[in-house]
Amino acid sequence: MNIEQKLQEYKYQGFDNCQMKQIRLGLEQNLDVSIYANPEFDEYQMFQIREGLEQGLDVSIYTNPKYTHWQMQEIRYGLEKGLDVSIYATPKFSDSQMHQILLGLEKGLDVSLYTNPKYHWRQMTQIRLGLEHNEEIKL
């Protein structure tokens, strides 16, 4: 079956034009689009999953419609850098919180001190910066 025939199958499943574009791009790259060809994913979520697949990443950790595309992006960035994203790959963290944890992991910091959804991302930033500068952290 060629790409156009495959696209016709997806078109009848209720995908909008923007979602169909992501499916087309995946098919053109010979990706397994069934991983993200889910009407629950918006085009931006599909983009993040497709980007991960193109890079050969195990995207299964973030193929969940509960994640925003921004959260998916932070998880994908961590995977690209070879980090243990399981530390922050939960919809309980906002994308900004995920970013602070990602930055800490990149620096080799003990992120367990601020890996808690109760902390606002700005608080996480302050804790992370304190750890980077070897300051005493009082929580």
Can you walk me through this structure?
With about 140 residues, the protein is mainly alpha-helical. It is about 50% helix and about 0% strand. It contains six helices and no strands. The protein has helices at about 5-10, 15-30, 45-55, 70-80, 95-105, 120-130. Helix 3 (about 45-55) packs parallel to helix 4, helix 4 (about 70-80) packs parallel to helix 5 and helix 5 runs parallel beside helix 6 (about 120-130). The mean pLDDT is about 95.
Concise account of the structure shown:
By secondary structure, the protein is an all-alpha fold.
What portion of residues belong to β-strands? under 5%
Structural class: mainly alpha
Low-confidence stretches: none
Multimeric status of the protein:
single chain
Number of strand segments: 0
Kindly list the characteristics that best describe this protein:
6 helices, mainly alpha, single chain
Per-chain topology:
Elements: H1 3-11, H2 17-28, H3 43-54, H4 69-80, H5 95-106, H6 121-132
